[in-house]
Amino acid sequence: MYAKPRSTDSGRRAADRCGRRDELHRRLFGTFATANGADIISQRDAADRASRLATQAEAARLLAQAQSTDDLVLAKAVARHCFEQQWASVLDEWVGGDAAVQADLIELYELSLAAGRLNSELALLVNHSMRGGAA
């Protein structure tokens, strides 16, 4: 019987992990399914605004503003920037106890860590914090 080479299996698993990571990233931070032209412009503007955030304090203030006005596009843009900057405390505020978002974010952290895209110490702190421990 012919056995598949292990490198093919490991390549497939890596591709599956990459696909899953992309899926989680889109679900957490991406566009809405019903996005029209105006929504896409709004998302681009929100992403631009979030990309200018230089500190966690600035991010926390902008996230609070977005949440107080129910601006989901801006909140997602801020959360994405915080994920990229690895600002755990602001991400924790964004999650706000939503178990599904929390689970997806933890999984995205773990996949990103495995791919070498995150600082392991910070990822572990966020993971611990979001699972109910003290950071």
Task: Describe the protein's architecture and organization.
It comes from Nocardioides massiliensis. This is Triphosphoribosyl-dephospho-CoA synthetase. The protein is mainly alpha-helical. The chain has one domain. The protein contains 7 helices and no strands. The longest helix has 24 residues. It is globular, with a radius of gyration of 17 Å. The mean pLDDT is 82.
Write the layout of secondary structure elements.
Elements: H1 6-29, H2 37-51, H3 56-68, H4 72-85, H5 88-95, H6 99-114, H7 120-130
Helix pairs in contact: 1-6, 2-4, 3-4, 3-5, 4-5, 6-7
Which percent range describes the beta-strand content? under 5%
Low-confidence stretches: none
Query: Would you tell me the structural class of the helices and strands?
Result: mainly alpha
Instruction: Write down how many β-strands occur, each being a DSSP E stretch of 2 or more residues.
Output: 0
Indicate how many domains the architecture comprises: 1
Q: Please describe the biggest sheet, giving its number of strands, its sense, and whether it closes into a barrel.
A: none
Provide the helix percentage. Answer: over 70%
Order of helices and strands: HHHHHHH
Number of helices: 7
Overview features:
single chain, 135 residues, mainly alpha, Triphosphoribosyl-dephospho-CoA synthetase
Summarize the structure.
It comes from Nocardioides massiliensis. With 135 residues, the protein is mainly alpha-helical. The chain is 75% helix and 0% strand.
